[in-house]
Design a protein that fits this description.
The protein is an alpha+beta fold and about 60 residues long. It is built from one helix and five strands.
Length: about 60
């Protein structure tokens, strides 16, 4: 499973789980990372973080 966190053009932070049709809005990057950890509990997951321009900032196994 891949979990994506990215900043949208308005400065908001979004969390998207691969295979889901919706995204979740988070207050900030730390909140999004905490939410990603909760989603990934007990699963083989990779976190991918993008900036607002679509550039990968980092990837990390969860």
């Amino acid at each position: 499973m891949r979990i994506f966190i990215y900043s949208d053009i308005e400065g908001g932070v979004r969390l998207h789980v691969e295979g889901e049709k919706t995204t979740r809005e988070c207050g900030d990057m730390l909140e999004a990372i905490d939410a990603a950890r909760e989603v990934a509990k007990g699963k083989d997951a990779v976190l991918v973080v993008y900036d607002a321009f679509g550039k990968v900032i980092f990837t990390q196994p969860l």
